[in-house]
């Protein structure tokens, strides 16, 4: 078997790994990166046409956003995913095409891609490939790929071993592989995840402080996964009385994603399934949730206090920019960043102390308070090491999907704990035989 790393090598974004197994060529994920430079995987059209199959671990755009380009290039095969991943990908691809002018495909390619998506449930095997729950977002999966010579590759995609409000953590039992491709988003020595209860309390306290100043709170987040976690957390505090009642404005793609989550309730934690069946306790239908009524969001701005949960999580587009233009200049307001902020994004700029942001060719002064709490859907270094230890028969580890320093620190930790393993941090385009 040969592995070729076409993206997410020494970076976060454009996940794309080609696996050659004899004459069969398979792609694991095919995403984009939200930066102007090097946004797409290193993949020639001729290579796309020769693919036999694509396996998609989850719907986030850094793993799925380049899929329609394969069909634009002439690929005619299937994209295998879980049902929730297919449903969520449909929503995200349409939104990406609408918002980003530099997309290398058209609406017809998106339609073609969606028509070629085939469901593969957890535990089901197809052409030597099988999915298991990755615990990251709804429908996320790890992929185990068996080779003709008896070799097996395991790819984590984005993985979360810890239970969240909505999802069970990824299981660690029963894995066996010769090679492991593992993410490293939070693989650094200092990346220690805050317990969910602590992160929840911090968020409520931060909102409470802003309300005392009669300010508004923006919580930018991914439409899928973290968006639902944040909404449920804030709503839970309001229901219990630990946070005063206030409208929670839900903007962007989060609303559509909420409906998909509810329709795929069988993939959620048993406790959430029970609450959905209890009509007065359905967390997806809270009376606290509001949708902005006016295109200019003036109904939101007229409120003395409000919480705005909106896309996008790294401030690279979406309704959050409308809110920032209006609210960022005023010091009584606050923005709370709840997830990873990639280099080159407005979210990272804010974390690094930017005093102004460029939005729609305008320079917007930043006087609002910038706060941060981690509602991470990625495992930290300790959990990633736990996952490595659970894979039986392992000989090699390839570290992807992380900033250079974090990948290197995870590699050091793996080597320290498992000296028999060969650990590589692939460079973009690098190829390995296993």
Question: Can you tell me about this structure?
Answer:
- With 434 residues, the chain is of the alpha/beta class.
- The protein has two domains: 2-190 and 377-433, Ribonuclease Z/Hydroxyacylglutathione hydrolase-like (Metallo-beta-lactamase, Chain A, 4-Layer Sandwich); 196-372, 3-Layer(aba) Sandwich (Rossmann fold).
- Helix content is 31%, strand content 21%.
- It is built from 14 helices and 22 strands.
- The protein has helices at 45-49, 61-64, 67-72, 83-99, 107-115, 196-212, 226-240, 254-263, 270-277, 298-301, 320-327, 346-351, 381-390, 404-417, and strands at residues 2-7, 16-21, 24-28, 53-55, 78-81, 117-119, 125-126, 129-133, 141-146, 152-155, 179-183, 216-220, 248-250, 289-290, 306-310, 334-337, 356-359, 362-365, 369-372, 396-400, 422-424, 431-433.
- The protein has a seven-stranded mixed sheet with strand order 6-5-4-3-2-1-22. It has a seven-stranded mixed sheet with strand order 7-8-9-10-11-20-21, with helices on one face. A six-stranded parallel sheet has the order 14-13-15-12-16-19, sandwiched between helices.
- Strand 7 and strand 8 (129-133) form a beta hairpin.
- Helix 4 runs antiparallel to helix 8 and helix 13 (381-390) packs across helix 14 (404-417).
- The radius of gyration is 21 Å and the shape is globular.
- The chain starts with a strand and ends with a strand.
- The relative contact order is 0.15.
